[in-house]
Every structure is written in structure tokens, then in C-alpha cells.
């Protein structure tokens, strides 16, 4: 039998990803995946392996059409400021041939995926002042956004909000301890802990927490009853961005029960304190698919830590789009 030559995966760079695939595409892909019946509860677990100078994340997933794995290194805050804090690659396989199909820049996938999860879950709540979610993207009411954190995830969230709601008037304020020198002039910045920052969060329709904080940075008194809050920065049981009083007073949506109870300190700690019950929690999939309806009589909190299926869905969609463009 003649020796068979293995197929080499196509390399898709950071630049190619963003040239072919927008943040709005990423939001639509995740919503479509859940609306088509995908159950995140059947996903593979993420592994975190300590290494000498940081953490090694291993995220495998599989569907009927594809399977793949994302491999990332995560450095601690402040380590080698000249390098990205997160680095890595996504290796995508074809589900029919079992051949490696594409090797995709891991930072591009992660920077698209994380804010896409945020916005895909809470998309229908970002309507106008009426609170009706019949046409969130097309609402004419201004969308006031406060983002804690000015790193890659904070900025990626800003880009995703703008890409997903291109026809909305958006007022966006970044909040952090120090003012970044390279922040785009069209964004406003204010000092964390200042009265101006508190006014920004109280006025915000959408608050995005994308920090490396281990202690709460946001409390109940700092948000309105109609606010939608996403906590994405922490992925450890011992770290959280939201205070217990805020979580306990809100409608709480979680990415997946098992994943949240492993890594979601924003939810684990209020549960351990008796301020929240697991029966109170709604699932990301049920909210996006419309299986549950969410009342708008109190704040909404969405907590997630990232699951492998989200990266796989985006990696397959990215590879399809790059291939279609030739």
C-alpha cells in the first residue's frame, strides 16, 4: 500500500480572522448554535495546568461536524508587559475526514469569543427605555455602556458592542485604576472608585466587568434596577468582580451549571454564603433559545468563564468564511 501523505492544516492568522469575521458575526454564530439546540452541558471540561510562569489552558470540544482544541498560555498580571497576557492557537479538525483543517490564531479566537458570549446572552435585553426586547439592535434609544478594565478584553467588548449595534447611539465609558495612553479618543475614561465612575455605572444600561480583580469592584448600590451586568474577568472560585449584595438582588444567568460551580467565584461565593440558591440560576442556553423569559424588574447578572464549545463554533465559522473568500 502506498504511503499516504497527511493533510496539512491551513494557517489562519490574526489579521485573516478579523478581515473575514466581524465581532457581530461571532455574536450571531453563538446565538444560532444555541437556538439550533446545542446543549452546553455535554461539552468537554476545560483544564488548567500550572506552569513555571503562568497557566496552560486546554480546551477540547466536539460536534457532529467538527472537533478541535484551543491551547493557551495565560501570564499573571504585569508579567512581560511587552507581550500579550494570553497567547496560543486553535487546532480545528474536520468531523468527517478527521483531518486537521485549520490552525487559527488563538488570541483572535479568544478576543472574538469572550465578548461574543457576553453580548449573545444579553442581546435581547439591550432594548430602549421601554425594556421591550423586540428589536434590540434597531432600538433608537441611546445605549450607555460602562466597561471595567482597559485591557484586550475590555477593548474587545467595546468593539463587539459597536459591531453588534451599528445603528445605535452608544455612550461608552472605560473605568480603570490607571489611564491608558493608547485608548481611542472617541472613548471616555474615568478613574475607578471616583464619583464620576459611580455616576457612570448608575447611568449605564450595560456594565461589562473584564478585570483581573480578585475582590468585588461593583456593588448593588452602584447600579440601576434596569442594569444588565456581565462578569467575565475572573475564572477562579476564589476571585470575583461582583459583590454578594448585587448578585443576590439580581436575576442571575450562568453559562452552564457545572462550569460555573467549578470556576465562577462571582456565583460560588454568594452560594456558599447562603445569599443565593442554585435553583435561582437561569442558563445561558435557555435564555438565548427563548425557553425562559426574564423579567426586567431588577438587575440582570450574567456570569461566565468560557467553555470549549464556544471556541469550536467560532473556529469552524471562521474557517468556513476564510475558505469561501478564497
From TrEMBL:
<protein>
    <submittedName>
        <fullName>Ornithine cyclodeaminase family protein</fullName>
    </submittedName>
</protein>
<dbReference type="Pfam" id="PF02423">
    <property type="entry name" value="OCD_Mu_crystall"/>
</dbReference>
<dbReference type="GO" id="GO:0005737">
    <property type="term" value="C:cytoplasm"/>
</dbReference>
<dbReference type="InterPro" id="IPR023401">
    <property type="entry name" value="ODC_N"/>
</dbReference>
<dbReference type="InterPro" id="IPR003462">
    <property type="entry name" value="ODC_Mu_crystall"/>
</dbReference>
<dbReference type="InterPro" id="IPR036291">
    <property type="entry name" value="NAD(P)-bd_dom_sf"/>
</dbReference>
Amino acid at each position: 500500500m502506498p504511503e499516504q501523505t497527511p493533510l496539512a492544516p491551513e494557517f489562519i492568522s490574526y489579521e485573516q480572522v478579523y478581515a473575514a469575521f466581524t465581532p457581530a458575526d461571532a455574536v450571531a454564530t453563538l446565538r444560532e448554535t444555541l437556538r439550533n439546540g446545542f446543549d452546553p452541558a455535554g461539552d468537554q471540561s476545560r483544564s488548567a495546568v500550572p506552569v513555571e510562569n503562568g497557566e496552560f489552558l486546554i480546551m477540547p470540544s466536539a460536534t457532529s461536524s467538527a472537533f478541535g482544541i484551543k491551547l493557551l498560555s495565560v501570564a499573571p498580571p504585569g508579567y512581560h508587559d511587552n507581550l500579550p497576557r494570553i497567547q496560543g492557537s486553535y487546532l480545528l479538525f474536520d468531523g468527517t475526514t478527521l483531518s486537521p483543517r485549520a490552525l487559527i490564531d488563538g488570541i483572535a479566537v479568544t478576543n472574538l469569543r469572550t465578548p461574543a458570549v457576553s453580548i449573545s446572552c444579553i442581546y435581547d435585553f439591550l432594548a430602549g427605555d421601554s425594556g421591550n426586547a423586540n428589536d434590540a439592535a434597531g432600538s433608537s434609544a441611546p445605549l450607555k455602556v460602562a466597561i471595567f478594565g482597559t485591557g484586550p478584553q475590555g477593548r474587545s467588548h467595546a468593539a463587539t458592542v459597536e459591531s453588534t449595534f451599528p445603528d445605535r447611539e452608544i455612550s461608552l465609558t472605560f473605568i480603570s485604576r490607571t489611564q491608558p495612553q493608547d485608548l481611542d479618543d472617541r472613548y471616555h475614561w474615568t478613574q475607578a472608585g471616583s464619583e464620576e465612575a459611580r455616576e457612570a455605572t448608575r447611568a449605564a444600561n450595560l456594565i461589562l466587568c473584564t478585570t483581573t480583580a480578585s475582590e468585588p469592584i461593583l456593588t448593588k448600590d452602584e447600579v440601576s434596577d434596569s442594569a444588565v451586568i456581565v462578569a467575565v474577568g475572573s475564572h477562579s472560585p476564589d476571585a470575583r468582580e461582583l459583590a454578594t449584595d448585587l448578585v443576590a438582588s439580581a436575576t442571575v444567568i450562568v453559562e452552564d451549571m457545572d462550569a460555573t460551580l467549578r470556576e465562577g467565584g462571582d456565583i460560588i461565593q454568594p452560594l456558599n454564603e447562603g445569599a443565593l440558591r442554585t435553583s435561582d440560576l437561569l442558563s445561558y442556553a435557555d435564555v438565548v433559545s427563548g425557553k425562559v423569559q426574564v423579567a426586567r424588574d431588577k438587575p440582570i447578572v450574567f456570569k461566565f468563564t468560557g467553555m470549549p464549545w464556544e471556541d469550536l463554533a467560532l473556529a469552524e465559522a471562521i474557517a468556513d468564511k476564510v475558505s469561501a473568500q478564497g
